[in-house]
Structures are given as C-alpha cells and as structure tokens.
Amino acid sequence: MYQMWCVYGSMSVRCNHQKVEKEGAIVDRVNVTINGASLSVPKDYTVLLAARDAGIDIPTLCYLKDINEIAACRLCVVEVDINGRPMRNLPASCVLKVEEGMNVRTNTLRVREAVKTNLELILANHNRECLTCYRNGSCELQKLCDELNIGDIAYVGETRRPVIDQVSYSIVRDSSKCILCGRCVSACRDVQGIGILDFTKRGFETEVAPAFDYSMADTPCVYCGQCIQACPVAALREKTNIDDVWAAIDDPDKFVVVQTAPAVRASLGEEFGLPVGTRVTGKMVAALKRLGFDKVFDTDFTADLTIMEEGTELLSRVKNGGTLPMITSCSPGWIRYCEIFYPEFLDNLSTCKSPQQMFGAIAKSYYAEKIGVDPKNMVVVSIMPCTSKKSEANRPEMEVDGIRDVDFSLTTRELGNMIKQARIDFKRLPDENFDKVLGEYSGAAVIFGATGGVMEAALRTVADVLTGEDLEVIEYDVVRGIDDVKEASVTLPIDGVDTEIKVAIAHGTKSAAKVLEAIKSGEKTYHFIEVMACPGGCVHGGGQSHVSAKDRLDVNPKINRANALYEEDKIMPLRKSHKNPEVIKLYETFLKEPNSHLAHKLLHTHYDAKKQYTIENQGEFDDLL
Amino acid sequence: MQKVFDIKENKQKFDELLAYIESQDKSQGVLMQTLHKAQELFGYLPIEVQKFVSEKTKIPMAEIYGVATFYTQFSLEPKGKHTVGVCMGTACYVKNAQLVLDKLAKELNVAVGATTEDGLFTLEATRCLGCCGLAPVIMVDDTVYGKVDPKDVPEIVANYKK
Questions:
Q1: B44 shares contact with chain A (CB less than 8 Å)
Q2: What is the domain extent for residue A67?
Q3: B74-77 — which CB contacts under 8 Å span 24+ positions?
C-alpha cells in the first residue's frame, strides 16, 4: 500500500573509537606503552583515548569528545618518549596522536606536580563558593580537586570582576565560575552553528561572553542550553523556578497540575546515579505525586493531540496548495532560531503550539471545566528536558483570554533537585501510573523525545487516515538514529491518487540550517520536515541531567536515552496518536474536530521575525543592508 | 565624539568595506584583514561596523568582538585625527620616555589612552616600536620622531594642529 526508502543518511565521519571497533574493519594499528603496559591501538587514536582503553584515567577539564579538543586546560599532560627520545615538555594527551614506539607515563612525580599546579592556577581565579553552588555534586572541577588531592588554595590574588547575567528566562551566566575551558564556545559555535559566546578581551581580563557584553537575552541565543550541557562548572546554568513551584504547591487555593515531557523519563534517573538512559517513568510519576502536585499528567497526551492538529494541517496544505514544506513547531529553540535566522520560512512553520503549550491551554479550559476548577486558580507546571521551554512559556502569545498556558517550566535537573530536597528515596519508589484523562498517551507520543519521533508518530497516523486501514507496520527505522540529516519518502493515496510525500528530519540548529539552505537553493524539495533544536532531539536537551566529559567517552546519551523511549513505545498497548481514547473524547465533547475554530483559538499560534543585536539606530542599519 | 555613530554619513565607507569583503578569497579566514580594513576606513570598530561585518561574512558577532578586543591595534572607541604613540619599551623607558609622555599629556591636556576634546589627538603608550637606537621614540600616525626631548614636544604637536 505504501512504500518507503532511505534516500540518504548523511553521516559525519569522525574518528570515533567506538566506530572503529564496531565496524570491525582492518585499521592501521600502532604499538604503544602506557605506564609500562604494552598495547596495540588504532593509529588515529589520541594518547587520551589509548589510555582510556588501557583503563588509565587521565584527568581532563576542557576536553569534550568530538566537541572541544583544544588542549587549553593542561590537566591531561603526560610524559612521553618515542623510541627512547623524550618529547620536550609535557604534551597534552587529548590532542597528541599515538605513534609507533611511543612510551607514555601518566603517573610520574613530574606529571603529578604539573597537573596539580595547573589545577591550582585555575582555582586561583575561580569563585569557590562550592557549598552553595548550583553544581555542587555535579561539578567536574570540584570532582578533580577531590581526586587530585588539592589540600589548599596555593595561589591567592586578584580575581576577575564577576558578571552575572540573569536577564533571560532560560539561562544564567556567571563569569565568576568560568574557567575559560571553551566547551560552551565550541558547543554553540561549532555544534549548533550559532556562536553566541566566545573568548573576549585578553590576558587577565579574558572572559567568555557574548559580543559587546550583551545579555544573552539580547543576542540571537535560542536558549537550547547546549552550552549548559557542555559547561563543567556552574558558569552556565538554567534560571531556576523551583521556589515558585514549591510556593504554588504550598498554596491551598491553587490546584497544581504537572506535565512531564517524554524525554524526561529517560534521563531523570541519572540525577540519582542510575545509568544514562534508564527509563524511570513509573518512579517519576510516584515522585511527582509525593511532591504534592494535585494531578500528575503527561505532555504525551498533547503530543498525541499535536499529531491530530499538525497531521490535519499537513494534509490540508498538501490538498489545498498551502505553503510547503511544512515544518514542525514543537521545539522552541528551533522556533526562535527560525524567527531570528530564517524569517523567510515562518510561513512554513506549523501553526501548532508545542505540546507543552497545548497542554496548558487544554488543562485550563477543557480539564478545568470538567473538574469544576476556576482556571485562574489552576497552576500548570511542566517538567521539560529543555531550557528554551522556560522562555517559550513566557512568550506573550502563549495565553488564552489573559490566562497563561503554562506557569512554570522546570528542567529535568530541577525536578531532580526538588525530589532530593523533599527527601524522597527515588530508587526505592514503586512504579505508579499517570492520573486519568490528561495522563493517557500512545507510544507514538513517547518517541517525540528522540529525533525523528514526531515524524514517525505523524506517519503512523497520516498513513492510517489516508489508507483507511489500521496498518500493522508502524516502525519507521529510516527516520530513527542520530545521522545528521535523515530523509525518507512515503507514497500515500491522497484523494485517491498515489502521492509521494517527501520528508526530512534535522536535529541541531546547524543541521536545520543545512536543510533550509538546500531548500533555498532548490537542491531539495520536501513536504514535511521535523526540526529539533538540540542534536539528538529532546533526549539531549539543555535541561537534561549532566553527563560528565569522562562518562561521555563511554556512553552516548543521545542513543541510550532514545533507546529508552523506543522501548516504552514497544510496550504500550496503544502506539498511534489517533487511537488515544482521551484525545478522541476531547474532540467529541469539546474541540469537535482537528483545526476547528476552538482548536485554533487554544492550540495554534503565530510567529514573528526577530532582530539580532538590536542597536539604537537599527532602522538605518537595516536600510544599509 | 559622544554622538551616535552616523550610518548614513558613513555609507560610502560601508560600500568600500563591502567591496573589500567581496574581493576576499572566501576559502580562507577573512576576519583579520577585514577588521584591519574597517579600522583603516572608520578609524575604529563601533558595533555598527562589527554588525555589518558579521552580516556580510556570516561570522558570529561574538567571534568578531573577541578578535576586536584581543588585539590592541583594533579600537572600539573613536580615535583622534592623529594618534600619538610614545614608546615605553625598555630602551626608550631608560632614556626617559616617561617624561616625554608626561609632557605630551600636559601639552595636549589629555589622559594616556584618551582622545582630546577637539578630536584631534589620541595619546597612547605603546610597546617597543623597534627602533631602539633612536630612543626615546614617539610616533605620530606613520611618522617616527627619534631622540625626543620633552622640550621638542610643543613643536612636534604644533605641526599637526595646522
């Protein structure tokens, strides 16, 4: 009835040690000795990776695999000789390629003293308020000080003037914590292709900051939070709303409902020491109930609703000659990116609000009415893998008749903090179920959290609707995985005519830009595109649990967490959005039909082009261009 | 000097800068030479100029600002019509360059690093200018004055006031 094939999966080819092993190809190897042990390693290895294979843990701070390999912090220095010839000085193992006959020592007095001195120098200009620091316990610098036996502060002197920027709703930058490792700079500029932060000024005054010391709120920052994910310390973190949420829970006049995004369940356990990508749906629900929320619901409910609205919008655009390709609008980082960098594509964006916002709008209308609560007394809290969601919740458009859709948006990490603060023993919690009505969801909704998930969910529903059948083949492997840009093509009967529907999936704003440029140049045409602002999709969002640079040598959070979601999809009795009984009931008794007048009022929105780095004489500047 | 940078008044310079950017080989880094060109055209690198470079080269603003604030030859503040640099390298320093600098500051009535109110002079203390045999040395724009005695200062300055 329909067919599908992969056109291409453009893949970034990196010398990644897992890849070399996995493919089992014959690779050139070299023999090296590390701390007296002989081993044979692929010749494109760095000394750091070779040591890792040999079970030797070299300390690192600025190194972030594949993202920031710049040998700046000098904590990974080693002593090396090649065939008996000693190398001058102590090279940085994160960038030093292995060579035949290389003899590496990582644990000599000279190395230990150099590493310790380098770390002490970093500490000299670091705000050491660890006890009250946001990253207390998850700080990579703190951990190294413990492991490397730093007993006192060796160098005391002047410190930089601190700059704390907390203007945006999403991200706080605190220069007093910054150790100038450059991980955020690489994450923003090279991974996301945006470049909000860079090294500015020089010498003692050096600061990682936006241009002209602008607040991040006045830059084209999309608040994706990939810089926060990269930061080893608390120089970059989310703006927290924990106390706001506690206050709402404590207020007897407020009816507080909470919604959880799909990706949260794949990461929350990491806050409590569980392996990366452990699925903790039931425990998460149990914890939320114990925190005192009146109802514990799932954003997945409105993910299903999104499919109904967005799927209908897509078919209507295809049938009626509307603007194509249509592009998904679930990711607020992507929406902001499009508004700032590609305003010419604003008409291509689906008008659907994101599932987070749809949830708030439905909770405060349909659900409030159903249970007889005044929407003014209802507080909607969302738990998101995302920092951009905080800004989205505060967008002026995101309210209906003066009532905000979502009151507070917390990250996965903030929820972890609340659970710890409430002294809940997370790992020993029983598995519990979401509350009725807005806690009902399909497997299609769960996979929204992984790149390609929205597309797969949409295809499951659109294919059923168009064929009029209940199709059994529902797993679309071609749209899964973390290849840079994924493309697929499906032939579906539209008004009785077999029509080829071309789709693409981009994750990360850099890969989104690649797809948009290919459309602009005429090289590619599509009907439907899924874009998520974060590489890997929401599972790797800026609000997810921190995974240290060291752990990232062994695990890929994007893959592990996505697997957790696909696993949940598999065990769900319902796996298609349009089969969600509560969504069906919502349409029958309230919205009437997808894209109805009421649906438009509650569930759809609009977008505006946004200027970047606005200046006093912006008008004249625009004329100049 | 306090007024907002006038974009319209500088239209021609922007055109010239754009022509320069477009003439560059895009396969190589173009930022340094572009900023040099801009500094030469405008005398300094105000936010309007950096925004323009960012728009036309697609290099992020933070990277441009980072380079502009790293190298001392770029300035974010408008400079005077003439730049007076006093060499404070070792040789000039021991030959009493400080006295020359003090005299210049007094004569021009301006702090070191600042620009005179009439916008004519910017006074700077520089690193070694590379002609130690002539110590103490000052440089006004591209002209080098060697073996400067503080007494010579009024005459040198007067040449540029004409």
A1: no
A2: 29-119
A3: B74/B35, B74/B39, B74/B45, B75/B39, B75/B43, B75/B44, B75/B45, B76/B44, B76/B45, B76/B46, B77/B44, B77/B115
